[in-house]
Amino acid sequence: MAAKSDGAAAAAGPGPEGAAGGARSGAGGRGEAAAAAAEGPGVTGAGGSGPRYELRDCCWVLCALLVFFSDGATDLWLAASYYLQGQRTYFGLTLLFVLLPSLVVQLLSFRWFVYDYSEPEGAPGPAVSTKDSGTGGPSISTKDSATASRTKEGSPQLGPGPEPSSASAYRRRCCRLCVWLLQTLVHLLQLGQVWRYLRALYLGLQSRWRGERLRRHFYWRMLFESADVSMLRLLETFLRSAPQLVLQLSLLVQRGSEPDLLPALSTSASLVSLAWTLASYQKVLRDSRDDKRPLSYKGAVAQVLWHLFTIAARSLAFALFASVYKLYFGIFIVAHWCVMTFWVIQGETDFCMSKWEEIIYNMVVGIIYIFCWFNVKEGRSRRRMALYYCIVLLENAALTGFWYSSRNFSTDFRSLILVCVVASSFALGIFFMCVYYCLLHPNGPMLGPQAPGCICPESPGPCGPPADAVTSPPRSLPRTTGAERDGASVGGERAGTPTPPVFQVRPGLPPTPVARPLRTEGPVIRIDLPRKKYPAWDAHFIDRRLRKTILALEYASPATPRLQYRSVGISQELLEYETTV
């Protein structure tokens, strides 16, 4: 049996899969994604001891909370100061950049909560049952409540037992009502992210204190919660902190020799929030994937400094230009956003589960590209990043030069200092970027030998099952097209390449085709979806339905299962044996 991501039962045969880690895998699928638990080779994941939640992880979350509160408190304090001074325009703009992004993020967070906490109609939740599989290993499946009671006679049932009594059902309804009221109040007070930070901290500490099986369960949930809050914070900071930073810097430049302490504090808090959120997002993203090495805290601090100085130079150049040429600054921002959004769309990102969500995501990334670099495409990003920073350097120089040309060269020494600040801040940011890539990158030094991207304790070979290790046929073989029969480009081959004859028998595999022993212990959750490539999140981190299914299967399994995605390459390899009618 296979379990769809929405909980409905669906029959499916075994298929070729690609490996993805359990405790550090990502996930998400649409309604067509099926998850089946089985036992088989070619899987990596949480089969061993797995990562542990440490004290420095707890300190990192507490620092993130401190950055969040300092950013919001200084902005509200500054808005109140503008109101008391009678500067209603600045008060309205400052408050708008605080409330509007916060409302958007709270609505998204509450929508996630509603889906995560809602139950299927007529059932208290997805029923989970286990039975012995044909291969002798545990097989796990989720079913609708209507079919959950029809388990095999004699099989252990981990789903709901007998009907609960009226007293227990009443207590359960009261608890659910209290949770709904609490979450509604939290999100009305604009504290949804704070709740998620505290919940991630609680789940991490529980994974540290509990036994082995519950430790892995809490660690999975902690990763899910950390991914949610990092995505929410990334959206909020570039909708709130980035425009707030440019606005307050512009006001500071206009005031000239009378700077105020409160706008300076608000500007510093917004700048730190932007840099911290970017580094935290990258760290959580790498921690969630087993095919990438985790980002160390030294590397995260280097990323914070890198983004801190580059965003500071960028924002100061914006503020200088906007203080003189307000209309042209708006035109420049819109044009830069359009160009960067088109660049991202042209790169064909694979982040979301639908086309329109992907377009919205690309538009948000276009906003991020106004201020800093953000990797959204798999592969070596050095050329793209070098091109981006060359464009940013030219734009910063042009914006600062236009502003400086409007000043008095002979008497205005302060203008020259601001130009030097822009140049030196950008140079410092590039320096820390080089420090990160040359010394602290998870894959090793950029100029030296680099370690493989994924973690394979058994051997330095590639991650996942080898290409020749086909353990089962695909569920269905697509029909061969006429272009493939005529020798057109198929799977990267040039046109005119002769296709092998039908039913060609290949030479047998060598006695030891594998570079490392395949791990076959423990259950495996097989997801009938190709795995998304880094730097995208894995599918079960994006799709809430698949996440609920995986958590139900993981909690019902006696051992923590590992996740296994479908491998596209193996299906293409088997197409050579297909016949065409």
From TrEMBL:
Annotated region (Disordered), positions in chain: 1-27, 122-168, 466-517
Any one Gene Ontology cellular component term annotated for this protein: plasma membrane
Subcellular location(s) of the protein: Cell membrane; Membrane
Principal subcellular localization: membrane
Spans traversing the lipid bilayer: 59-84, 90-110, 327-347, 359-376, 385-404, 416-439
InterPro entries: XK-rel, XK-related_scramblase
Keyword annotations of the record: Cell membrane, Membrane, Transmembrane, Transmembrane helix
Keyword Transport: no
Membrane topology recorded in Swiss-Prot or TrEMBL: Multi-pass membrane protein
Biased composition (Gly residues): 15-27
Similarity field: Belongs to the XK family.
Protein name as annotated: XK-related protein
Source organism of this protein record: Odobenus rosmarus divergens (Pacific walrus)
Organism lineage string: Eukaryota, Metazoa, Chordata, Craniata, Vertebrata
